[in-house]
Amino acid sequence: MPNSQNRPQVAVIIGAGDATGGAIARRFAREGFTVAATRRQADALQPLVDTIESEGGIAHAFGCDAREESAMVDLFNTIERDIGEVGVVVFNIGANVRFSITETTARVYRKVWEMAALAGFFTGREAARVMLPRNRGTIIFTGATASLRGSSGFSAFSGAKFALRALAQSMARELGPQGIHVAHPIIDGAIDTAFIRDNFPDRYALKDQDGILNPDHIAEQYWQIHRQPKDSWTHELDLRPWMETF
């Protein structure tokens, strides 16, 4: 994707896990983006980096706690200085926990909020900071069922995801007129992950019927969001298996 200085275009994936985040990173790498992927432990990203490089792409791994403001400021400064121009940022940190309201401690509630909401704010702010002078870029925040409705046992997760959705809406209204596309896909259903396989075998068994979300198919939708023309931008869409109720 050309730019005036012919610098590499970078896709920053905050929370590039083994399923959805990794799939998104690979999808953008296939389109020629240099990937800057983050997890709290950089070593956990090596398989993803190896896969992208084996497919002819370029990837950089960063160990980064997205809840720490200074770490996020340093991350974006480093990418812009040493790697290239940030063109896409995806915030994909999961923080899904389940506790009854009487068992939800202040520590749990605060940690979930920090992971899913505060970290999203730091990500969005730093993305906007580097994109605004260029009047272009895409920022995508991964939402969940809990972004729309709070279910029993998910007070902490729902509170944080509601906050992230509000952040995305506010940023879209502020940044859209300045050329920056802010989107909030809602992932409404189980995803094909080791967590679902090991903890919800009945739900995982629905994979053979296309009853759980394929991370590669989610990643394709993120790519399509990025490439939308400005006159037809999507802010929010929901992705769910055909058999999921809503």
What does the model show?
The structure is a single chain. The chain has 246 residues and is of the alpha/beta class. It is 42% helix and 17% strand. The protein has 8 helices and 8 strands, in the order E-H-E-H-E-H-E-H-E-E-H-E-H-H-H-E. It has helices at 20-30, 46-54, 69-82, 106-131, 155-175, 194-199, 201-204, 215-226; strands spanning 9-14, 34-39, 59-63, 85-91, 137-141, 143-144, 180-187, 236-239. Strands 1, 2, 3, 4, 5, 6, 7 and 8 form an 8-stranded parallel β-sheet that branches. The radius of gyration is 17 Å and the shape is globular. The termini are far apart.
Shape: globular
Structural class: alpha/beta
Strand content: 15-25%
What is the oligomeric state here? single chain
Q: Major sheet: size, sense and barrel closure?
A: 8 strands, parallel
Cα Rg: 17 Å
List the uncertain runs.
none
Q: Helicity, in percent?
A: 40-55%
Mean pLDDT: 91
- Please work out how many helical segments DSSP would assign: 8
Give the SSE string.
Answer: EHEHEHEHEEHEHHHE
End-to-end span in angstroms? 38 Å
Query: How many DSSP E strands?
Result: 8
Keyword list:
eight-stranded parallel beta sheet, 42% helix, alpha/beta, 246 residues, 17% strand, single chain, 8 helices, 8 strands, globular
Summarize the helices and strands and which ones pair or pack.
Elements: E1 9-14, H1 20-30, E2 34-39, H2 46-54, E3 59-63, H3 69-82, E4 85-91, H4 106-131, E5 137-141, E6 143-144, H5 155-175, E7 180-187, H6 194-199, H7 201-204, H8 215-226, E8 236-239
Parallel strand pairs: 1-2, 1-4, 2-3, 4-5, 5-7, 6-7, 7-8
Helix pairs in contact: 1-8, 3-4, 4-5
